[in-house]
Design brief:
Strand content: 15-25%
Order of helices and strands: EEEEHEHEHEEHEHEHEHEHEHEEH
Radius of gyration: 23 Å
Number of domains: 2
CATH topology of the largest domain: Rossmann fold
CATH class of the largest domain: Alpha Beta
Largest sheet: 7 strands, mixed
Bound molecules: beta-D-fucofuranose
CATH architecture of the largest domain: 3-Layer(aba) Sandwich
Shape: elongated
Number of strands: 15
Number of helices: 10
């Protein structure tokens, strides 16, 4: 391992804070060097995820973290990983923007004997030895929770047989979060003769993009029963556009808005009824990564694939206490 030797100096020579050599207070400790390639800062979820990683992998916990924000571009992530390899880091943590196209850069990491831990999103590969561990959400399950709830809600609205017009605003195309959440809706539409997707657009997990696409959709003033947004930011953008165009967002006699993440802001929209259902997606993944690294350091076995447990909140049961109790 290539840990950085760090000198913790008790006494500093006053002139220019130059360390006094060989003082008795001198201690040597080793930091584990981690290169973290993050997707970007596109959502509140992402910001909370970055914070969690920075907090868990801080110097006081024995880490030197080299952080890179890829601004939602795979090219930037590949460049960052190559630079981590050149810097001979101990571990690479990667949150891959999209699932495909990782084999050759991860082969370079493997050749350099640097373990790669995937967080949040996954990769599509035929060679599972290209990564050491994955920690994140089960996006397919999140989507299934959402469509199951919608099915029950439409029965309560007595819409189990009349046409249900759905607008589908997708997350970044090709990302695990988009693939899992979209697939659940597509399966459900396939199994319900009266559900139909009247518009499907890429909202890129941002409020601005969702506002833009939703503003175009409402121009034709169609009957909209449900808007299925693949994160909180998209739901907020879609609601802005819907309300501006005169639609009401509420569960009984308006547009049912479904969101994922359950961040503070998303849940406050749920409390006031404008988001009907918010499926939780937990961004606090830093401690899980630290545990994985610590097990690997001690030569202990790890579970290769770990999913975080998650729940859901709807406008009927959410309370202010639920919101206040959340860390993100
Ligand atoms: O839902 C969204 C973010 O990959 C789970 O990415 C993550 C998603 C999250 O930008 O808000």
């Amino acid at each position: 391992m290539k840990k950085v030797a760090v000198l913790l100096i008790g006494l500093l020579a006053l002139a220019g804070c130059v360390p006094a050599p060989n003082t008795p207070d001198q201690k040597e400790s080793e930091l584990i060097v981690v290169g973290f390639s993050q997707v970007g800062a596109e959502s509140e979820w992402r910001v909370a995820n970055t914070e969690s990683m920075k907090t868990a992998l801080c110097e006081a916990n024995g880490y030197e973290l080299i952080y890179d924000d890829a601004r939602q571009e795979q090219e930037n992530q590949i460049r960052a990983i190559r630079s981590f390899i050149q810097q001979d880091v101990d571990y690479i943590v990667l949150s891959p923007n999209t699932e495909t196209g990782w084999d050759s850069i991860l082969q370079e990491a493997k050749d350099a004997h640097i373990p790669v831990i995937l967080v949040d999103r996954r990769i599509e590969t035929t060679d599972e030895s290209l990564f050491t561990a994955y920690i994140g959400s089960d996006f397919g399950l999140e989507g299934e929770m959402a469509v199951q709830w919608l099915d029950e809600m439409l029965q309560k609205r007595a819409q189990q047989s009349s046409p249900v017009n759905i607008v589908h605003i997708q997350g970044t195309l090709g990302s695990s979060a988009q693939i899992g959440r979209s697939r659940a809706l597509e399966n459900a539409v396939f199994h319900h003769a009266n559900w139909r997707v009247i518009a499907k657009e890429d909202g890129d997990f941002t409020r601005a993009k969702a506002y833009e696409v939703m503003s175009a959709i409402v121009k034709s003033k169609p009957q909209i029963d449900v808007v299925y947004c693949e994160n909180d930011g998209e739901a907020l953008g879609a609601i802005d556009a819907l309300e501006q165009a005169g639609y009401e967002c509420n569960v009984w006699n308006g547009v049912i808005v479904i969101a994922f993440d359950a961040t503070h802001l998303g849940l406050s929209y749920c409390l006031d009824g404008r988001i009907s259902l918010n499926v939780e997606c937990n961004p606090l993944q830093g401690p899980y990564v630290a545990n994985i690294i610590s097990a690997l350091e001690q030569g202990k076995p790890i579970e290769k694939i770990q999913h975080i447990e998650e729940t859901q909140f709807d406008c009927f049961t959410i309370t202010q206490k639920d919101i206040d109790g959340r860390a993100y």
